[in-house]
Specification:
alpha/beta, Inosine-uridine Nucleoside N-ribohydrolase, Chain A, nine-stranded mixed beta sheet, globular, binds beta-D-ribofuranose, binds calcium ion
């Protein structure tokens, strides 16, 4: 994989969310975070937008936050409150919010920003609604961006359906639009990759050992996430999903990729929201760099260093 340059510029489209929070910290420390856009997903839009602002406040992230889509293109909205908590950030004591959104039109802001400035990465780590709307309204953006790195889908097991991952299941039509838009460099961090970035009690302990408000906040999030995962699937072990999509841009050497064709199932009764990763041998048309193997120890140490760099900066 070609290096992405010293300091890639990123727009992170997110629904924080525990793992979204750590992805934002990583994006701001390892890259240049140009802006944050929000989308209804893990929790309703009002909550994830407030959380994005709080996370910026907590970790000294100055990128503007733009509010995006409240609901998917076609499907009824669905949330993941059983994992992330009633307001999307269960666990830590949340500070008073002191910040405000820069706009209520994330889509328009992404269009304007990518038209004005070539070579920015789009990093969607929630349902793909905003990005699909951008490509529909402004197809020229496809050739203005450096690429798109997303957390979504899976090459094997699902989480919110037998073969369906949450972000893709929430808005499969949107992911279909994005995967067929013709973006030259699309990187996929699906569950088959993100489950390798292990969240366990040891990660919580490592974060807590760093000390400082930001690290304790992160440790409290991880503790609550593990409690909820244990209640859901019966074991204290989960995947740190969204940071993988950031690492795919800022630290692509920690991930091994293979070019594949990926499509989204839009109709199946059991399989709606499934990403179909064509892993047959032979020369085939490809549209995605499928991330399939993670260097876990390096990824964890990059994450811990990023939190360490921002643990005392809340304002
Ligand atoms: C994805 O769903 C959300 O709950 C996480 O934030 C992540 O983006 C994992 O399936
Ligand atoms: Ca997310």
């Amino acid at each position: 994989m070609a290096p992405t340059g010293e300091c890639p510029r990123l727009i992170v489209d997110c629904d924080p969310g525990h793992d979204d929070t750590l992805a934002l910290v990583l994006a701001d420390v390892r890259g240049e975070l140009v802006g944050v856009t929000t989308v209804g997903g893990n929790a309703p839009l009002v909550d994830v937008t407030r959380n994005a602002l709080l996370v910026g406040q907590m970790y000294g992230i100055d990128a503007p936050v733009h509010r995006g889509a409240a609901r998917p293109l076609v499907a009824e909205p669905r949330n993941a409150l059983h994992i992330h908590g009633t307001h999307g950030l269960a666990g830590p004591v949340l500070p008073e919010l002191e910040r405000a959104v820069a706009s209520d039109d994330a889509v328009e802001w992404i269009i304007e920003t990518t038209r004005a400035d070539e070579g920015i990465w789009l990093v969607p780590i929630g349902p793909m609604t905003n990005i699909a709307t951008v490509f529909r309204l402004a197809p020229d953006v496809v050739d203005r961006i450096a690429g798109l790195s997303f957390m979504g889908g899976s090459a094997d097991v699902g989480n919110h359906g037998p073969v369906s991952e949450f972000n893709t299941l929430v808005d499969p039509e949107a992911l279909h639009i994005v995967l067929t838009a013709g973006v030259a460099d699309v990187r996929m961090a699906g569950l088959d990759l993100t489950h390798q970035f292990v969240v366990d009690d040891a990660l919580e302990a490592d974060l807590r050992a760093i000390g400082g408000t930001g690290a304790v906040f992160a440790a409290d999030m991880v503790g609550a996430y593990l409690d909820n995962v244990e209640g859901w699937v019966g074991r204290r072990r989960g995947g740190l999903h969204d940071p993988c999509a950031v690492l795919a841009v800022t630290d692509p050497d920690v991930i091994s990729f293979t070019d594949r064709h990926v499509g989204v199932e839009l109709r199946g009764e059991l399989t709606r929201g499934m990403t179909v990763v064509d892993r047959r041998p032979g020369d085939r048309e490809t549209n995605v760099r499928h991330g399939h193997t993670l260097d876990h120890d390096r990824a964890r140490s990059i994450l811990l260093d990023a939190v360490r760099a921002r643990t005392g900066v809340s304002s």
